[in-house]
Structures are given as C-alpha cells and as structure tokens.
Amino acid sequence: MSLGQAISTCFRKYATFSGRARRSEFWWFFLFVYVVGLILVWVDGLLGLQVGASTQEVMINDTAVPLVSSGFGVLSSIFGLATLIPGIAVFVRRVHDSNKSGWLALLSYVLILACGIGLILQLILGLLKSTPGDNKYGPETA
User: N or C: which end of the chain has fewer CB within 10 A?
Assistant: First the structure.
C-alpha cells in the first residue's frame, strides 16, 4: 500500500474499529500524521498562532531564570484533533491484523497516560506480523 492509499483508506474508514489493517497502512498513516504535525507546529510558530504562550521568571538560588512556555499551536491542534480518531481506528485494525484484541490498543493508551511505557507496547503491536489468511477479525487485506 502506498502513502496516498494509506491516507485515503484511513480517512475513508474514519471511525471503523473493525476489520484489519496491514503494517504498511498503519505506518504510512503514522508517518503522514507525524510529518504534517511537525510542519504545522513550525507554521504555528512562524505565524505566531500559539495560544497560551507566556514568559515568567523563576528564582533559583537568588538567580532569575526565564521560564518560557510556547503554548500550543492552533493549526497543529486542529490537525491533531482531526487525525485522532482515524489514528486510533487504524491502530485497532492493525492489532486485529495480528489476531490480537483491539483492547490491547486501549491498554497501550492507558499505559502511556499512566507511565509512558505504553509507547513500547504500541511499537511492539505495530510491528507484529500479520496473520496469514482469514482470522477472527476478518479476511486478509490486500
């Protein structure tokens, strides 16, 4: 599956959590979201589209140390919200492709919020080999 096909498929199956997704579909979509997100963070900074940006001074050992918060970018946040559901959906379908329960995807997100170790679980689940032929989550995708 090519980059364009992966993006098209993920947006067409915006909130489809059933079925299967090959590794190429998952990783191409992940690359798309990551690269476009980085570009939009840069554009937000270039155009000054940050909300909640502030500069404060913190006293450490009688020395004023500037503490800068860049806030969050408007364009990158809109893009992040627009790709959140299809990103979770393609991840669940990716887990299904290796004949594992989609609830493992939820577990990985909970572990990310709790302690960050969920990123390792997501990496492992994203790299698992596909189940050849049909499995309990559907037929093998092309």
Answer: C
Cα angle value 19/23/28 (rounded, 5°) = 110
The total number of residues written for the chain in this structure: 142
One-letter identity of residue 35: V
83 contacts 33 by C-beta, under 8 angstroms: yes
Indicate the domain borders of the chain: 3-127
84 contacts 101 by C-beta, under 8 angstroms: no
- Angstrom distances, CA of residue 37 to CA of 12, 65, 67, 82, 118: 20, 30, 25, 11, 21
- The pLDDT confidence band at residue 70, using thresholds 50, 70 and 90, is confident
Cα–Cα distance for residue pair 39/77, rounded to 1 Å: 12
Q: Contacts by 2-9 with C-beta closer than 8 Å and gap 24+?
A: 2/28, 3/28, 3/31, 3/32, 6/32, 7/32
Separation between Cα atoms, residue 38 and residue 139, nearest integer Å: 35
For the cut 70, the answer to whether the pLDDT of residue 142 exceeds it is no
